[in-house]
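Next comes the chain:
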Amino acid sequence: MKIASVSSRAVRIPRNPSPAVGGADTMDFVVLTIRTDEGIEGIGYAAFQSPVLTPALKAVVDGLGETIIGSDPADTEAIGERLLRLGGGSPAGLLTRAVSAIDVALWDIKGKALDRPVYQLLGGYRDRVPTYQSGYLWRAATLEELDAQARQIVTDGFTSMKFRLGAEATDAGEIARMETMRNAVGPDVDLMIDINQGWDVNRAIRIGREMAKYGIYWLEDPTTFDDFAGLARIADALDTPIAAGEYVYGIRPFRELIEQRSIDIVMVDLLRVGGFTQWMKVAHMAEAFNLPVVSHLAAELMVHALAAAPNGLTLEYMPWGFPLFKQVPPAVNGEVALPTEPGLGLEFDEDLLARSELAV
């Protein structure tokens, strides 16, 4: 079997869910279809960049796609390495986002060719994974809005959820948001906090020491992503586990994060690491150090990788990409069951894509 064609489309779709307060109300994706000479199609997407970069991202996807025509789609390692070399040999930026999309589509082809879901080909450790709600609870929300949204998430059946800090001018303001969230959901719901690199090391330690009172499940990206020593200081000072890794590209920075004990929970972004092929390498690296691994965004794709990792902890249920597909695996009582269909078990919503395509 050989790759016969690679095509992409840039689309702009409504953000799901629409932001209750602040934030962009649309998102851009570059969706990808790889077709083989045996009629099997694999799909994937590149995303989560500024709309200003969408034309450039599509150009990278198209340029790399042309170079793999005639290749065996099963050769994911060889194809990924060759594409990274074409981009200069250093995994970063739009290059890796494009390579990741291609890698995901190749795994979709493998699954369909073998009539097996992707998670089974990646390792098949389990057929359902725990998940947490991550599509709500943003920094612009008032305390009253946080309270109402958190209660609704519990009503929807989630037993864990993530909210964001990092926008308050004072420590007291940040702590008030923690208190509001804990009071809203009670003691039995897991709460994660994401700072998105918004604090310096000292503030992270200072506020982080208050987290023990509220039973926070993890503190995510408290400071600059590549300050490995600073993250290690925070991790050493706090009882709350530190999660980080979503901002780095490729697999090598994870060696530094893990060896320097900068993190307690390894968070890996599928579209920055290089697709399923590279994501699983980081998961196994973390396993060797007795550390759990968690996903970032792209829940409809990441459910396969997390289900294949023995140390997979929980799936970020972020619904931004869901509208691209006719249906996605639902979250039921805090869990997501794996698709039984071959490949990714996903099908693009062609009507939506046609309505949403950008002229780039």
